[in-house]
Write a structure and sequence with these properties.
Helix content is 45%, strand content 15%. The chain has helices at 2-13, 17-34, 53-60, 112-117, 141-144, 160-172, 196-203, 222-228, 230-266, 269-283; strands spanning 38-47, 76-80, 90-97, 123-124, 130-131, 150-155, 178-183, 209-213.
Length: 284
């Protein structure tokens, strides 16, 4: 152990003062970069009423679900503790529980756009989420999915209407957004009116859609959902890298343009003579 320390010390001693400074700076930068970048990822839980959206919303935050069904009033948002498997990047996952039209809210006619704008004025909870006291009668998917990387689309296979709702939403969700079609109530498969084959057929209708079965009474399927989050994160990461490459190209052009201007001035005889004259006047 003592020999190792003496060898490291002698190796450092062989470096000059400037080289040691550069090495220390390099190690410091690598430690900082090792902490990774920060990403904000938005995941929307979408589905017809009574399909387990809020149960999933709570489970993903490590919270207990409610035994008695209560229709969600307004948009709820919360943060999920999740880290990508193959990256040290810091990811802040914001999950939205998006309610839809139901008998409980037929009288409310607030647009999704207005509801989202009011989110900052919502009531804060201990978990840092907020609830809009009013919600829309119909969802404006395009507005709701702005800046969204992933959608978890919940289905109650006991209810044909929830399947039709999911079919309609998949047609409206942009193809670049990853979708997880989640069939809840796997522990009641004998009551399913929509078969797994029907849902696999829906998944096959477009790209970036994956079929998953889960339970709203247990954590069955939750681990697969966490794995699903890898895909929208990697898409978000890729988009940011492409923007950095684009910015790098612009900065390269700017640097080259500035260099050419300096080179023109540097190689201009009049500029050289003017510099000499300035030097002579200063000496005198």
């Amino acid at each position: 152990m003592g020999n190792d320390q003496s060898q490291k010390k002698s190796a450092n001693d062989e470096l000059g003062p400037d080289q040691r400074t550069v090495k220390m700076m390099d190690e410091t930068m690598r430690r900082k970069l090792g902490k990774g970048e920060k990403y904000n990822m938005k995941i929307v839980i979408l589905g017809d009423s009574k399909t387990g959206k809020t149960s999933l919303f709570l489970k993903m935050q490590g919270m207990n679900t409610e035994e008695v069904y209560r229709p969600t009033v307004g948009i709820q948002t919360g943060h999920v503790h999740w880290s990508p498997k193959r990256s040290e990047d810091i990811v802040k996952v914001e999950v939205w529980d998006a309610p839809v039209a139901s008998k409980a809210n037929q009288g409310l006619k607030m647009s999704w756009d207005d509801a989202i704008k009011l989110s900052a004025k919502g009531k804060k909870t201990a978990k840092g989420s907020y609830v809009i006291e009013e919600l829309a009668k119909e969802s404006d998917v395009e507005t709701l999915l702005k800046h969204t990387q992933g959608v978890i689309l919940t289905v109650n296979p006991n209810d044909l209407q929830s399947f039709q709702f999911a079919r309609k939403q998949i047609e409206l969700i942009p193809n670049n957004i990853f979708v997880c079609l989640l069939a809840f109530f796997v522990d009641e498969k004998d009551k399913w009116r929509v078969t797994a084959e029907d849902m696999r057929g829906l998944v096959a209708s477009r790209s970036n859609v994956f079929y998953l079965e889960g339970s709203n009474t247990t954590n069955y399927g939750l681990q697969v959902i966490y794995q699903f989050l890898e895909l929208p994160f990697l898409a978000l990461q890729r988009d940011m890298l492409l923007k950095k490459i684009e910015l790098n190209a612009l900065e390269t052009q700017l640097a080259e343009s500035e260099l050419k201007k300096l080179l023109e001035a540097n190689l201009n005889p009049a500029h050289v003579l003017q510099t000499d004259e300035d030097g002579k006047s200063e000496d005198s």
